[in-house]
Amino acid sequence: MADPALHQETKPINQIAIDYTPEACTHCPESNSITLTYDRRGGSRWRSTTRFLYGTFSSLIQCPKGNTSGLNFNIYLSSLEGDKSQDEIDFEFIGKDKTIVQTNYYTTGTGNREEIHELGFDCSDGFHEYVIKWCPYFIEWLIDGKVVRKVDKREGEGFPEKPMFLYASIWDASYIEDARWTGPYVGCDAPYVCLYKDIRVPIGTAKINGIIKTLKEEVSWKKTEIIPAKGRWGWEMFDAAMNLITTVIGFGMSVTFILFVCTRIICGRLRGAESRQMFEIESRIDLEQPEHRISGLEPVLVAAIPTLPFTREAFNSAEDAQCSICLGEYQEKEVLRIMPKCGHNFHLSCIDVWLRKQSTCPVCRFPIQDSFEAKHTRQTAISMAQSIGSRDTPSEYSRQWPLPSYQRQEGNHSNERHLETVHGNPEITPGEPQTSHS
């Protein structure tokens, strides 16, 4: 087995892309297994969905059984399959002889670095582990934990440095070199099925690994040998650096998400109270304005409009349960003003601000001043009736407009005594309390 310290952290491959003949490729993420089939439809090829820059790539592979002459089945890394300037690192099985495997690597499209390795077994007899360890300064190919080839990066020689996908395919290669490489295709045992399971790729993607590469070069990692007894480079520090960077990035993303959620909640609550605050601010400003600038009702008349605490039992209609000025819903026990004649209701603070600037109902535009003038006319009629001694004559003008408590307490007591002499059963309208009689 290879030294565990040489292996970066890996994870199962959860998602793949199928380049061609998708019906000949099956992927099961739960069991982390992939099946490639070659038959009359041809072969198929799958790859990872992201590129990686360095790391450890591995899979358990069982090659197809039967006479596989002419076929090539493989697992390899490539910056982009079909690109003439691609980088590539290969494990390739030769169909005419399933007891050998070929390793190779390309830099900017240049290969010719093939090596043949004896397996010591038939690659179709059960699963065996194949590992490609690609590091900034060397490449290792391992079979069942044993290093079968190692290439060190040397000055002036090509070395794969482009981010690469993980690929695997099965295809007819008998046309290459007139079948001298893989043998002629026979096909007597089709369909041919190549099985992959426990496929693993590096945790970091090309972007994260690129950051690690930059850090590594800045500290001259290649020149740092820290475990003389093992004769290995300092890859333990390499693994620790990648773990630290991954942790920091994950923590930063988590904090950002939490701040985003908290901000949304706080902003939502502030918007809910914004309309009410605007009216309260305007109310305070209006109280400070000079009296001659008021164009609505006088404050004493505004205060004389009847009020009523809100209860849901008394206000069944959905329209009556919402203030038409601030569009806020009424809460239990909130004090409302009820407009005379039309009966529309509003928040006390909202309608008071309105009536200091306007003299009409905000909904129906009925002139509220007219209601006060009608009341004044009726009160004048009552006084005239009292002056001629018509004490026993019932009158509909005995209704009194409700004024605020301080007006009732400081009002003219002589007028109250006159009103007490008026008898009868006057008509009562909503919001107008009946004057008591002795």
Automatic annotation (TrEMBL):
Keywords, in A-Z order: Glycosidase, Hydrolase, Membrane, Metal-binding, Transmembrane, Transmembrane helix, Zinc, Zinc-finger
One matching Pfam family: Glyco_hydro_16
GO BP annotations, alphabetical order: carbohydrate metabolic process
InterPro entries cross-referenced by the UniProt entry: Beta-glucanase-like, Beta_glucanase, ConA-like_dom_sf, RING-type_E3_ubiquitin-ligase, Znf_RING, Znf_RING/FYVE/PHD
Keyword Cell division: no
Domain RING-type: 323-365
Keyword hit for Zinc: yes
Positions of the GH16 domain: 6-201
Residues annotated as transmembrane: 240-261
Cited Gene3D superfamilies: 2.60.120.200, Zinc/RING finger domain, C3HC4 (zinc finger)
Chain positions covered by the region annotation Disordered: 385-438
PANTHER family, A to Z: OS02G0676500 PROTEIN (PTHR47035:SF4), OS11G0150450 PROTEIN (PTHR47035)
UniProt name for this protein: GH16 domain-containing protein
Organism: Dovyalis caffra
